[in-house]
Design goal:
Oligomer: single chain
Distance between the termini: 32 Å
Helix content: 40-55%
Radius of gyration: 14 Å
Strand order of the largest sheet: 1-2-3-4
Largest sheet: 4 strands, mixed
Order of helices and strands: HEHHEEEHHH
Shape: globular
Number of helices: 6
Number of strands: 4
């Protein structure tokens, strides 16, 4: 379980699909919203190749389908996602645009081998940010 002390200082919880399933009853939109409401935080759950599901303080759930790619290595994709979402939120993007940025960066990451060496560089970040904000 997540401690009450940790939740008290948490704005966003970003579990992967397995961590999410350990705390919720399925991956349906209602389960995502119910977890966010029960914990009192905003939630974005990563769903592997299916992208992400996000619910913010408004209570509505958005599904984000990542851009297509050829997967080479999934190691570090979650770290790329969380880092990009955190950056997006800190930069003032809407929560949905920040989650889209996370999906774009994770997608870019899985197209190359390795962890930190696979993370997007400046050119890929510009593409990811353009994709994230185009429809968010």
């Amino acid at each position: 379980e997540i401690s009450a002390e940790l939740l008290a200082v948490t704005d966003w919880l970003i579990p992967n699909e397995f961590e999410f399933l350990a705390r919720a009853a399925g991956l349906a939109d209602g389960a995502v919203a119910a977890l966010a409401q029960r914990l009192g935080v905003s939630v974005v759950a990563t769903l592997g190749e299916a992208g992400a599901a996000i619910v913010d303080s408004s209570g509505s759930v958005a599904r984000i389908t990542p851009p297509p790619t050829t997967v080479v290595d999934t190691t570090g994709a979650g770290d790329a996602f969380v880092g990009a979402v955190s950056y997006g939120l800190a930069a003032g993007l809407s929560p949905t645009a920040a989650a889209r940025l996370g999906c774009a960066c994770a997608t870019s990451s899985v197209a190359r081998a390795g962890t930190q060496s696979s993370f997007p560089r400046a050119a890929q970040l510009d593409e990811a940010l353009a994709w994230a904000t185009a429809t968010a």
